[in-house]
Amino acid sequence: MKKEECYELLKIKVEATPEEIQKAFDLAVKEYRARERASPSQTEREFEKIVAAYRLLIRERNRDSSSGSSISENGGGREDVLKHQPVSEVYSKGAGHEKGIQRGIAENMTDEIDKHLVAFLEPRSPASEQYRVLFTRTQQLLGNALHKLLAISSSVKGEGKTVTSLNLATVIARDFGRRTLLLDGDLKKPDIHSYLRRAGKMGLVDVLLGKATLEDCMVPFLFEDLFVLPAGTRCENSLKFLSMPKMGEILAQLAKEFDYVIIDTPPVLPLADMNIFSNLVDGILLVVRAGKTSRDVVKKVLESLPSQKVLGVILNDMEVNFKKHYTAPY
Ligand SMILES: Nc1ncnc2c1ncn2[C@@H]1O[C@H](COP(=O)(O)OP(=O)(O)OP(=O)(O)O)[C@@H](O)[C@H]1O
Ligand SMILES: [Mg+2]
User: Does residue 110 register a pLDDT over 60?
Assistant: First the structure.
């Protein structure tokens, strides 16, 4: 979508401030909702256009305001550890509740966007900033532009892999302008589609089965540079699919088409899936949920993965005091 069209769609001037964009967006969503009631089938495309216009303009403004200090401030810490601000902290303490775009969009779009997608709902919040930090640290650790298939895993289930994948992919596409694919590689317990609510039903498994092409299954999502490839048809035997030679071919193809492929993968325990994934990807980030997984388990899991592939750990859902610099060795 061209910028001129965005301004036209939101009925605002080129020099509109973020607050004016927010107001215009609020109004457009209100009008859309009224129309939706009258004719539900025709309006989904319209809604997507409104969001596309909003995100294009806001991305431009955000880039200006967030190419900032705290990334470089935190960038020089321990190289083996990654961290991010817990999403829960944002909700409970309202870190992103200053007046502005993020508040407007959060209030207007809670039906459409899952509240855990904080990088979208509250782009200027400290939590979103930490996802940007996470990406810059990851880039430093990868060190080579050719390495771009990134698996997000964890020791056990429920540590925040999917939430981390969603938010990380969002900032990579929106704030860093990289063409990004979010791939649901958790074939036994795929979740990306439920957080996004609208992703299609066909996905990776269907491509592996030869029932669909990548183009059939990839869904554009929220930003022009962000696409989602859902897991697709549910399968019980994920190992059978992941070990197909075609799996490697698909990932190679995706690596050609995208700057980064963020893969939401299964936990390391108790499944064997990560043994396969660890050979297929360029890097692994391990999400560790604070207070949930013991240090011993994390240590064992890290030892079970190829050490050259493990980029670091992401501490999820922990109390963070922004005045301090938190690191946690593994
Ligand atoms: N930082 C956080 N703050 C608050 N809630 C969180 C946070 N991270 C994850 N959650 C919540 O914890 C639950 C598990 O998160 P998520 O689905 O991302 O985990 P997962 O590792 O992908 O789980 P699974 O192994 O079942 O796929 C969800 O209800 C999610 O909303
Ligand atoms: Mg998950």
Answer: no
